[in-house]
Amino acid sequence: MSYQAKLAITVRLANADPGNSDWQHDLAVSFDKITSAQRALHYLMGALASYRASHSIFDRLAKADPGTAGWQSDLAYAENSIGEVQFIQRNLTGALASFQASLAIRDRLVKADPQCRLAARPC
Prior knowledge:
Blueprint: H1 3-16, H2 21-40, H3 44-64, H4 69-88, H5 92-112
Helix pairs in contact: 1-2, 2-3, 3-4, 4-5
């Protein structure tokens, strides 16, 4: 199944139940997977749009449940991913802001749980 076909299915599921955080997370991950192909094809504007769509979902999840380290970590990852594309595009101001936002989230996570850095999945 192609990423775009999976995205279409995931969009339908997520729209059918916007309160289902698992489906929302799956939708964000689907957007993230599409960016891998877009970046490989050097379609950076599309990759940035997909990363921002993923970021928007992770941001909602993180705000709805700020105590869940996984949502916060996903948001930090999305910020960093946006920064990577901005850096490639030579938008250094935007990249710096995105990298700093990612770092701030990770810093909060490590301060909240110093053992976090030892987890298999980054906090």
